[in-house]
Amino acid sequence: MRERQTRKSRSGELVFDDRAFPIVLICLRGDLDAELVDQLFDWIKQLVTDSQDKKLRYALIFDALDIARPSPSLRGQIARRVDLLPPSWTSLNVGSHVLISSPVVRGALTALTWITSSKISTSFPDSLEAAIAKACVELRGAGIEPPPSPELLLGASARRAGSGG
Question: In the CATH scheme, what is the homologous superfamily, with its name and number, of domain 4-156?
Answer without folding.
Answer: STAS domain (3.30.750.24)
